[in-house]
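Example 3.2
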Amino acid sequence: MFYLHEKRRRRVCRAVFLACCLAPTCVSAGWAIVVSLPPYRALHERSLAARLGLEVSIARVTSPRPGDVLYTDVELKDPETHERLAHARLLEIWRDGGLWTVRASQPELNEAGLAALWKRLENELHNQSASDPRIYFEAEEVLLQLSGGARSIQELRGRLERSETGPQAKFSFRLPGAELPRPVELTISRNRQAKPPLTRVDLNTSDAALPCRLLAAAWPAAGRLGPKASLRGSFWVADAPDGWQGGASGEIADIDLASLVNEQFPHHLSGNARLTLDKARVSQARLQEAAGTLSAGPGVVSRSLLAAAEESLHFVRADVGASEDKSSGEELKYEKLALAFNIDARGLAVRSPRHTTTDGSDRTILTDSAGALLDEPAEPIQPVINLVRTLVPQSEVLVPASQETNQLTQFLPIPAVVLKPGTLPEAHKIRVGAPLEK
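Structure, written as C-alpha cells:
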C-alpha cells in the first residue's frame, strides 16, 4: 500500500485546496470584478453599436451562465441626433450552434425607432452572407409609442435566416384582445437569384385590424390615412428594376378623409371612410387595376369638389338634396358617401353599390339629410385622368398627362393649387344650388 508522510499529505491537501477551491474562487471573483468595470460594459456597447449602427448604452452586463449574456436597461439612440429610439429593461443573448437567440423584456419603441430598425433590417438583408449566423428574436409584449397614442403588440417572434433564393426575415405577432387562430405574419425576403436582386415584403393580417401607424416606418403614406386607420387582408410589394410592384386584397377602415384630402388637394372632404379592395395590382410603380367599394360619412364636402365631380367625372346632380339654407355656404354637410369602382386598362368605372340592371335600381352616390346630392356618372367608363381633373381642377397649372411630362415635372418646381374661399368658376356656381356671395 502506498504511504504518504504526514508532511507530504499536508502539501497534497494544500495543493488540492488551492487548485479546486481557492483558484476557482479567485478567478470567479476576479471575473465578477472585471465584468462590473466600465471598460467591460463599454466593450459590449461598442459591439452592439457596430452591429446595429446605433448609439447603445447599457446600465449593467452580467453572465448568468456560460455563453449567456444579460444586459440591463439597454437604450438605443440615433448616432447623429442622440434621440432616444428604443429601450428594453432586460436583453438576454445566447448562442446555440449557428443560432443566436435574443430575448427582450419590456421593450419600447417610438416611430423613429421603428424607422431606424426597419432600415437596419433592410441593410442586414442586403449584406447577409451564407456564413452569417441565424438570429431568433422574441418578446412577449412590445410597447410602441406612436403619434396617435401608445399601442402594444404581443407574442412577437422574429427569425433572420437563409433560404434557397437568399436571406429572409419572418415576423409574427398578435394584437391585444384579438382572439384569432393565426397571428399577423410579416415576411421580408431578398431574392438574389433575380437579376438584379430584389426585396419583397409580404403581409397577412389574418383578419386582425392592424393599425396603419405601425406601417408608417416602411410606408410613409400610411401615416396620411389618419391616426385610427387600420387594415386587414393580404398585401405584398417588391422593388422591381422598372419600378415597384405589388398587390392587395382586403380593407382599410377608419380612414380620416380630412387628413387624406385636405392636406394634399384644394378641396375639402371630411368623414370616416372604409375602403374595401376586392383586388389591386401595381406594376412599374403605377396602379394597373383595382376594384372595390368606398363608403364614408357623415362629414363635410366642399362645393368645389361637388362641382368638379360633376364637370370632370360626369356625376349627375340629383334633383333633391340640400335645402336652400344649407346650400349657401362654402361647404355642405353630407350623410353618406357610397360607391363601387373599377380601374383597369379600359378606364375608370364608378357606380352606386346598389346599382342593378333593372330600371328601379338606386343610383345614388352622395346623400344629405334631405335626400340625394349626386348620382352615379352618366358615362359607364371614362378615362382615369378625369379623376385627376376632379382633384386638381385649376386649369392654369395642368399639363398633358404623359410619360414625357412626368419625366420633366418631377425635376421642376411645381406651383401649389389653391382655391380661394368664396370663389368658384362660373360654371360651377350655376350647377351647385344657390349662388355664392362674392
